[in-house]
Amino acid sequence: MRRVVAPVAGAAAIPVALMTVVTLRWSALHWGATTEECREQLPGDDLISDPGLVATRAITIHAPPEQVWPWVVQLGADRGGFYSYDRLENLAGCGVRSADTVVEEWQHLDVGDLVHLHPKVALSVASVDPVRSLVLHAGPAMAGTGGAPPGSLPYDFTWSFVLRRHPHRATRLVVRERFAYTHPWSFLLVEPVAAASSAMSRQMLHGIRDRSERAFAVTIPDLILRQGALR
To answer: pTM for the complete prediction?
Structure first.
């Protein structure tokens, strides 16, 4: 009997393990996002028509978009950092130091500006709509700063940050990554990158939330005083 049960149990464990891996991967790629947010068209989606991998993550922040945007717009290794695991990023030589304050000189981005992930790797600003959305595009910028000719990169990439006004003076921050495979083997590189990005992005969303909510909490007494003075 045991000789029969053991192979059957082993065979049954294979699809269970595969289902677990698929479920964990889906959760990592869609952390915090609703089904509607995963399906909807976001700014920057038009830059890559046929992505090989898409990750959409989101978080609710109890502060208005005007309080969240300053933290988003100053993202960058040479700017406000990424509010994630600085020590891990710096093991790769990123030189990141996440800011705990809003810095005025980092509050302005124009299309074509570079946002660095690493001293030798940058994303270009594809579009910027203050307090609403920021779209970064990897392909052209990475080719230019890395010295590689266009088309030789293993993947194209867009990174979109979309802010939505939420009830009760809150913000819904939706972040999307889209990867386009430029070579048959690109997925071998993208999958590990996406797995690492999952953990880093989740911490980044928490970092933006915590900083925005702290800053907003400081302004609440001032708002109350102003409202009282107007009455």
So the answer is: 0.82
